[in-house]
Amino acid sequence: MSIDYDLHSHSRASDGTLTPTELVRRARAQGVGALALTDHDVTDGLAEAAREAAALGLQLVPGVEVSVTWNHQTVHIVGLNIDPGEPALAAGLARLQEFRQWRCEEIARRLEKRGIGGALEGARALATGSVVSRTHFARFLVAQGRAESVRDVFKRYLVHGKPGHVPGQWAPLEEAVGWIRGSGGQAVLAHPARYRLTATRRRQLAGEFQECGGEGIEVVSGSHSRDDVANMAQLARRIGLYASRGSDYHGPEQPYIELGRLPPLPEGCQPIWESPGWGSAVCADSRAVPSPSLGLA
Ligand code: AMP
Ligand code: MN
Ligand code: MN
Ligand code: MN
């Protein structure tokens, strides 16, 4: 029987709400056979997740989700089978966390100007790891009764053109892919259908990502519609990227996204876990059969 792969998830080390241990237990209960923990710009949860996964006999794929600025737009690159101790990756992530520190102060200053005080302390108090994310601001504003839901806060305060929006300077695409690959990992373009891009620009992004050494694209994602899946499968096949599958789970508060509860990769996709570079320590048992090469037009 094939393994159920979920290659995108978050813990309390970034903006998820479960501890790494709870996350791995839940993945196991949901029938996930291989789980990637991919916190935003941080790898602090990986050691704990790996310990629990080993105890339960689940494959833990060490990962990270790197924030990138591409053409003035934020995009996310998931790294799989990374070595969190690799110096260039660790230094790159540390730089992103410095930017996050400044950005959270700046978000708070901008909200303050609009009469919303205490947001910095509020968001920091809700952060459970070293990363303060916009999600923590959103949860704080909901708790303050400023909005009905996290989604509502993003729409009214935190996205482009809204009072708490701070234009980002995250990692350049080439550097992010370089850190991931340099640490022995594979780079995957996260939730590609979610970006506000025309089909042409999305192809351009995927092409540049591939030129930088990117190998995979999330075809199946918790945030993709059925049409998105079909379109991203087509894009993957067209330019010859491996396909990945990940829920982008953040915790049980988002009941519409569950670990492992995802459709299979569409026919004709080449799974990233069958790529020649896939971490041998992670899935040695499933590599007895040589993977087909990606000889695609
Ligand atoms: P940050 O990396 O701090 O800018 O925060 C990005 C995170 O905010 C994403 O990973 C999501 O978890 C969350 N997020 C982004 N946009 C939305 C939205 N429209 N509604 C709810 N959560 C969002
Ligand atoms: Mn998130
Ligand atoms: Mn993301
Ligand atoms: Mn994510």
- Helical fraction: 25-40%
Could you name the ranges where pLDDT drops below 50 across 5 or more consecutive residues?
A: 281-297
Tell me the name of the CATH homologous superfamily of the largest domain.
Metal-dependent hydrolases
For the sheet with most strands, the description reads: 8 strands, mixed
CATH topology of the largest domain: TIM Barrel
Order of helices and strands: EHEHEEHHHHEHEHEHEH
End-to-end C-alpha gap = 31 Å
Determine Rg (CA atoms, Å).
19 Å
If you average the pLDDT, what whole number results?
93
Proportion in β-strands: 5-15%
List of distinct ligands in this structure: adenosine monophosphate, manganese (II) ion
Number of helices: 10
Shape descriptor reads globular
Number of strands: 8
CATH architecture of the largest domain: Alpha-Beta Barrel
CATH class of the largest domain: Alpha Beta
Content-based structural category: alpha/beta
Q: Could you say how many structural domains there are in total?
A: 2
